[in-house]
Amino acid sequence: MIAGHFGFAAGVKSRETATPLWALMLATIWLDVVFVPLFIMKIETVVPIQGYHQTYGGAFIYAAYTHSLVGAALLSVVAGCAGKLAWGLRSAALAELALVLTGGGLYWRAASSVARQAGHHQRLARLSGFLVILFGIAVLGLDFSGVLG
After folding, report:
1. How many angstroms separate the CA atoms of 91 and 24, rounded?
2. Most CB atoms closer than 10 Å: which of 16, 21, 45, 96?
3. Residue 83 phi, psi dihedral angles, 5° rounding
4. What is the pLDDT of residues 118-146, one digit of tens each?
5. What is the 3-state secondary structure (H, E, C) of the chain?
6. pLDDT digits over 74-90, tens only?
7. What separation in angstroms does the CA of 91 have from each of 13, 16, 117?
């Protein structure tokens, strides 16, 4: 699954040559990188699902700080500011856009999976994933237009 993240970074690199590939790759997994120390400190947890084998998808991941809407937005701002300082405004915008699109897609995928397992319709999962992307892009627009300071 991580290969898709890195594939997205490689696609962005083909259009944005000023930003190093390693920085774009880091941007696509930034939330997961921050998740690891929080998991080690037991701030975020992984709870096995009873009746499932210990395989991928056999546990609930409680990542309320790194993968929540507010947490992801704050971590994206941190990554964007670092990119802006290192490679300029254009690189920061692309790194943040990569985070927004990747995060929205991953959120939609996770919400769809949960809805499917619970026997619910996936319409709300699609809507919520779309809203995450929409609001993320709106915040980026406000940020880089100078409205937010």
Report:
1. 9
2. 96
3. -65, -40
4. 777 767 777 777 777 777 777 666 666 65
5. CHHHHHHHHHHHHHHCCCCCHHHHHHHHHHHHHHHHHHHHCCCCEEEECCCCCCCCCCEEEECCCCCCHHHHHHHHHHHHHHHHHHHCHHHHHHHHHHHHHHHHHHHHHHHHHHHHHHCCCCHHHHHHHHHHHHHHHHHHHHHHHCCCC
6. 887 788 788 778 877 66
7. 10, 7, 39
